[in-house]
Amino acid sequence: MDKTKIERYGDELYQALIDRKAVDPLTDREKAITIEDAYRIQLRMIQRRVDAGETVIGKKIGVTSKIVMEMLKVNQPDFGQITSGMVFNEGDALRADSMIAPKAEAEVAFVLKADLIGPGITAADVLRATDFVMPCFEIVDSRIKDWKIKIQDTVADNASCGVLTLGGVRKSPRNIDLALAGMVLEKNGEIISTATGAAVQGSPVNSVAWLANTLGRLGIPLKAGEVILSGSQSPLVPVKAGDSFVCSVGGLGSCSVRFI
User: Fold this and answer.
1) For the segment 244-258, what is each residue's pLDDT rounded down to a tens digit?
2) Whether pTM exceeds 0.85
3) Judging by DSSP bridges, how do beta strands 56-62 and 227-229 pair with one another?
4) Which of 95, 105, 104, 106 is closest to 20 using CA atoms?
């Protein structure tokens, strides 16, 4: 795909974000679009956010569960960029109408104290480089109409990233077996999902190693201080004004988010 189209689609997705108005799937309009094209579109979209005053503060991993992989007909995760404008603290109320079709997912966030430069990164390397982990919510959103996405659509749309809420509990991942730690997700006081970290690539630690190695092959490091979202351990749950969610991770703590 030529540079003109890359920029046009990146600008279109950025404008869809600003206007909160979804666009037709890119895969319906560009039958030959590749994942590489989609990542170039993503970078254009993110550059527009940076030009508007935001900074890139981390990365997110998407498509980590078997169910979503089967839906998108892919056999590997994808990734997106986290910017400063996406991050909220626990206790902040989120406006449901600030997004198009938001869905909540619960996961574990890593904050690095050292760079991770792949390829060749192992789970042990991830543990050594991590300052702390915390439970969090990513509120995904799609600028593609009705969530009718293929892998190229979600990659171009920054892996369908919306906003995120980071929990206040911080612990070392060396003191918790994140693969075995159970996560319980509640919506409006009702339990709707239970899982362990093994649902995410065998462990959230493995997921971060995959990201470091994938980005390393592209010449992109994971940097000290960055926030890394390791992938959802829950189903994607639609949200609306008035909803509240709590996720609790065994041995780690909980995170809550509410919508107005």
Assistant:
1) 999 999 999 999 999
2) yes
3) parallel
4) 95
